[in-house]
Backbone:
């Protein structure tokens, strides 16, 4: 069934969509059933954002849309025409890590690393929201990011480090 | 996911007319429920009408002292809105008890009302389900029913409405404003969601072409005395097994106004304003009052096996929420 549907993709239903991703503007013809996650990974080759569950349950696909953290697997890309998207690739790069990325390294905020891009984008979003004050707040407000390696203590420590050094401005 | 046409709504009228004229077309808000269900082929819309460019994105104070929440205001924006946190803390707490921060950032006020049940059979197109395919049967009754309803069930369906926000809106006595091809109307919150009866496929009293434009909160928001308690399998990011929203206005320890609603126990937020009038108003805010009320409110509750524990959890959670609400603000 899935294969059959895939063969019958109606190209004529595609919609011209303009997205600014990590500062670069792209105009693409997008089929309405394409998730923002699939567009990032498969059309723009930005494979930092991960697909853990594809159903909003794990947070591995978390990106920032207009600076707000969302699950890109539940976003239809065509609904984000004109929006600015930031993925892990937009936060820093090898040899030029953002403070929050460095904090994840310094505090063992990961083990296998699969959930990490989502954790970091989520942390950046949470710091911007500014509602987390205590460790319990961090744990609660990061609960949308599941880590199967159980690196939670390190993740919390990394985020708390950034909060303590109030580098939130430089976190991006 | 099936192929579908994508349309950006430019105006309410056009959007309603499009859905009225296109069989299988649906509106989309944040997409956090609809896109999920489309990935499971539970929802297979022929077209999606994206409401996000309509002017329903603001929170405005109403002349008589209430608050209008535009249908596109996100769950996060409502929860952290300064007027909501100050005047309707019950609503903020209920919203923040639901889903995750990312989902709340995307989920809209309108979409939250219209989210569908989390019954596992409803999600699985390989098995029968009266809500998904009317007339096929309800395997939940003798199957996996840990999260299912204990009140207001029918022979055809025992599903629950999964929203936390709606439980608070029910307790507050909100009003849903809608607009469609036949004009606009106001629906009292208690009449918005329905019990399954013999039409479990219909969750609400909204017509297919009707758009939720706002949810209006009344002037009185239980600012001084309210509580939201959510019993769930995990401390965070899990749906309610049982939840209770309780709000009071008190004068010298006597209840002058009350709103008590339950989530996780029925096809709609469970509230009985009649019982509140007869058993709470004018009565002292104490355990005896709460206990008598709980007995009446939950009368006739019935378990289906796995969910029998709700018959024990619901009464104590109602009493605890009422106690917590009444004592809010007091020193321990
Ligand atoms: C992993 C996960 C965990 C969750 N946990 C919780 C939880 O603990 N508690 C909780 O309460 N919720 C929870 N949710 C559900 C979440 O709250 C809903 O998905 C969300 O509120 C739906 O809003 P939306 O705007 O994204 O709706 P959409 O997905 O856009 O729409 C839902 C339905 O509403 C219709 N619709 C949308 N807007 C309008 C409108 N203005 N007028 C008419 N029709 C409209 C659509 O056609 C669709 O049928 C969870 C979701 C996920 C994925
Ligand atoms: S409880 Fe309702 S939703 Fe679940 S299987 Fe039965 S009919 Fe379907
Ligand atoms: S892949 Fe999006 S939440 Fe899991
Ligand atoms: S580091 Fe492995 S899943 Fe989080």
Residues:
């Amino acid at each position: 069934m899935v294969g059959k549907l895939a063969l019958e993709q109606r190209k004529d239903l595609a919609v011209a969509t303009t997205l600014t991703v990590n500062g670069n503007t792209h105009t693409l013809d997008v089929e309405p059933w394409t998730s923002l996650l699939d567009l990032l990974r498969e059309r723009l080759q930005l494979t930092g954002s991960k697909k853990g569950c594809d159903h909003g349950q794990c947070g591995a696909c978390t990106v920032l849309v207009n600076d707000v953290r969302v699950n890109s697997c539940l976003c239809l890309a065509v609904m984000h025409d004109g929006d600015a998207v930031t993925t892990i690739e937009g936060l820093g790069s090898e040899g030029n890590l953002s403070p929050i990325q460095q904090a994840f390294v310094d505090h063992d905020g990961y083990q296998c690393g699969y959930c990490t891009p989502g954790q970091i984008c989520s942390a950046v979003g949470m710091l911007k929201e500014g509602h987390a004050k205590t460790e319990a707040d961090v744990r609660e407000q990061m609960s949308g990011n599941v880590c199967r390696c159980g690196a939670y203590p390190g993740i919390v420590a990394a985020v708390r480090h950034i909060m303590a050094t109030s580098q939130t401005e430089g976190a991006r | 996911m099936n192929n579908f046409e994508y349309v950006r709504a430019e105006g309410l009228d056009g959007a309603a007319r499009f859905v009225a004229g296109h069989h299988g077309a649906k509106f989309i808000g944040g997409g956090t429920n609809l896109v999920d269900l489309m990935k499971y082929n539970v929802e297979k819309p022929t077209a999606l009408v994206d409401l996000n460019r309509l002017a329903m994105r603001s929170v405005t104070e109403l002349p008589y002292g209430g608050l209008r929440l535009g249908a596109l205001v996100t769950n996060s924006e409502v929860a952290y809105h300064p007027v909501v946190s100050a005047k309707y803390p019950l609503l903020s707490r209920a919203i923040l008890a639901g889903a995750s921060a990312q989902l709340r950032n995307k989920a809209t006020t309108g979409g939250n009302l219209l989210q569908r049940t989390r019954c596992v059979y409803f999600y699985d197109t390989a098995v029968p389900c009266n809500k998904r395919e009317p007339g096929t049967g309800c395997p939940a009754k003798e199957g996996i029913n840990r999260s299912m309803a204990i009140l207001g069930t029918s022979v055809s369906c025992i599903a629950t409405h999964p929203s936390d926000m709606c439980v608070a809106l029910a307790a507050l006595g909100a009003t849903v404003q809608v607009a469609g091809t036949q004009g606009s109307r106001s629906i009292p919150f208690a009449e918005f969601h329905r019990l399954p009866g013999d039409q479990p496929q219909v969750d609400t009293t909204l017509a297919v072409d009707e758009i939720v434009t706002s949810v209006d909160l009344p002037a009185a928001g239980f600012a001084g005395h309210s509580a939201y308690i959510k019993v769930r399998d995990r401390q965070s990011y899990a749906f309610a097994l049982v939840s209770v929203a309780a709000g009071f206005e008190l004068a010298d320890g006597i209840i002058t106004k009350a709103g008590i609603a339950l989530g996780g126990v029925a096809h709609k937020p469970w509230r009985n304003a009649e019982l509140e009038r007869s058993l709470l108003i004018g009565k002292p805010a104490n355990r005896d009052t709460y206990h008598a009320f709980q007995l009446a409110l939950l009368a006739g509750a019935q378990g289906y096996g796995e969910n029998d524990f709700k018959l024990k959890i619901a009464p104590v959670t109602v009493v605890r929420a009422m106690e917590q609400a009444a004592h809010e603000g007091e020193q321990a």
